Amino acid sequence: MQKILIVEDETAISSVLQSILSDELPTHEFIIAADGLEGFKYIEKEDFDLIISDIKMPKVSGTELLKQALQVKPESTFVMISGHADIDTAVDCLKEGAYDFISKPIDINRLITSVKNALNKEKLAKENKTLQKENSTLKKKVSKKYQMIGESPALKKIHDMIAKVASSDARVLITGPNGAGKELVAHAIHSQSERSRGPMVEVNCAAIPSELIESELFGHVKGSFTGAIKDKQGKFELAHNGTIFLDEIGDMSLIAQAKVLRALQESKVSPVGSDKEIKVDVRVLAATNKNMQKEIEAGRFREDLYHRLSVIEIYVPPLDDRKEDIKLLVDYFAKALADEQGTAPKFFEEGALKSLESFSWTGNIRELRNIVERLIILGGNTVTAEDVAAFVRK
Ligand SMILES: Nc1ncnc2c1ncn2[C@@H]1O[C@H](COP(=O)(O)OP(=O)(O)OP(=O)(O)O)[C@@H](O)[C@H]1O
């Protein structure tokens, strides 16, 4: 039940207020306090959805009550009641944080509107808080999904680099073989940066046909080419105030590279078929498994774009160069998979771990994760070296 506190020293007025408002708001509970002091005691003890307070009262005035209450309960919503003589004080109350004021003699319609609006505001504020909580839980879940496990010197160095670059807007090129964790690095940079409140938009440059990449990145207007049946926003625009992650940038066509270069130079994008330019504030992260020097020498990648993208370069080494992380990764994946399936995590015997460490992991961490999943499904309750020998062909 929603609760409203009426603080008023004139009992005639407080009972009229209560009677009018309880007709309008029959499901609300009303509590009356005879002065500011009593009102404050109630506020300390209970939470009210709305406090209606007279300004002029003996002992503690309405203004004082407002200040004190907002100190202990900053989210309280106040509607003040003022006499003709204290309109200025009423305006001051608004500056102090009151939601509204009503002057005496009280106009009933004005009172009801103000009270309903104030309650609505309170309801919206509560809903907003719940949404914020849900959002932070979701963010925590997402950041768990992108957790980077490992304590090898190589991984520690990567964590240090991420912490250093996250706070800046510098462009970062993340290099390393397939499945090594480049996407995780990109997510970690975004989530540790100021931009984490904004979007992170990922584009897999290798997966988009070259004739569509321009429209994908910069958007298009209806009718600009066959199939453009309506206006479409590009990924750069969608990433405004956030981060764009250009994955597999080494596979981007030279034509698209020229367009991206222009977007980076001017911080503006032009949708296909439009002469309009849209200003975007986007941090660019890119990743590739290609050797960029070779790509440049072969004329497949523009050197000027490479320099623009690689202000900072983070190299994620293959798993074979950090085998000391295998045990931690196996434990982590075993636990994550058990959580997903709602089962107890399986234990990997020392012998099983030793075998896994002896392999060469060309598919890197992605491959290790798949093998752990296979062993959990096919192996015994405890995964042994024999299980590894039986189910992993290396
Ligand atoms: N250090 C790590 N801790 C936990 N999981 C990891 C780690 N590194 C990679 N992974 C997991 O391995 C898989 C591959 O990682 P990711 O996609 O980041 O690699 P990538 O280098 O971007 O690969 P590709 O070049 O193929 O896109 C993902 O499921 C990722 O969550």
The number of helical elements comes to 16
Rounded average pLDDT: 92
> Which stretches of 5+ consecutive residues score pLDDT under 50?
none
CATH fold type of the largest domain: Rossmann fold
Shape: elongated
> Ligands in the structure?
adenosine-5'-triphosphate
Q: What is the total tally of β strands?
A: 16
CATH superfamily of the largest domain: P-loop containing nucleotide triphosphate hydrolases
Briefly, what CATH class of the largest domain? Alpha Beta
Count of domain modules: 3
Radius of gyration: 31 Å
Q: Give the biggest beta sheet.
A: 5 strands, parallel
GO molecular function, one term: ATP binding
Keywords: ATP-binding, Nucleotide-binding, Phosphoprotein
Domain Sigma-54 factor interaction: 148-377
GO biological process, one term: regulation of DNA-templated transcription
What does this structure look like?
Helix 14 (350-358) crosses helix 16 (385-391). Strand 1, helix 1 and strand 2 (29-33) form a beta-alpha-beta unit. Helices cover 49% and strands 15% of the residues. It folds into three domains: 3-128, Rossmann fold; 150-317, 3-Layer(aba) Sandwich (Rossmann fold); 320-391, Helicase, Ruva Protein, domain 3 (Orthogonal Bundle), CATH 1.10.8.60. The chain is elongated and about 90 Å long. The chain has a five-stranded parallel β-sheet, sandwiched between helices. A five-stranded parallel β-sheet has the order 7-10-13-6-14. A two-stranded antiparallel sheet has the order 8-9. It has 394 residues and is an alpha/beta fold. Bound molecules: adenosine-5'-triphosphate. Residues 148-150, 176, 178-184, 247, 287, 289, 329, 365-366, 369 line the site of adenosine-5'-triphosphate.
